Amino acid sequence: MAEKGGYKHSCKRKSFEQPRAVRDTLLGRISQDTGKVFLDEMAITENSFANFSRSVSSLAGPSWHAGLAAKFMIERLARLPVRSRLWQRISAIATRSSIPKR
Predict the structure, then answer these.
(1) Each residue of 79-93: pLDDT tens digit?
(2) pTM greater than 0.70
(3) How far is Cα 80 from Cα 53, in angstroms, rounded to an integer?
(4) DSSP 16-52
(5) How far apart are CA 61 and CA 89, in angstroms?
(6) How far is CA 21 from CA 50, 67, 101, in A?
């Protein structure tokens, strides 16, 4: 059973945890002084990253709200359009047969 941490529903707990989860994820990856992003563990060059034309995210449940916040930050900071898709069932993501266009 999902832990509710004092909330009536686990989804509500997850929603309140999201800002901390985003902060913890970004901590150590973005310089407070320069705003430079460090993604050393990713196997991608800075030049390849600069050639991205858009970002696509597939979200379900409480992650939808975190995804909307991320969409705003990515579009504003990276100047990269983001398309977020809300899935009613997480199983639909795994069974989707179409390939996103580049």
Answers:
(1) 889 988 877 655 555
(2) no
(3) 7
(4) HHHHHHHHHHHTTTB-TTT--B--TTS---HHHHHT-
(5) 9
(6) 26, 12, 30
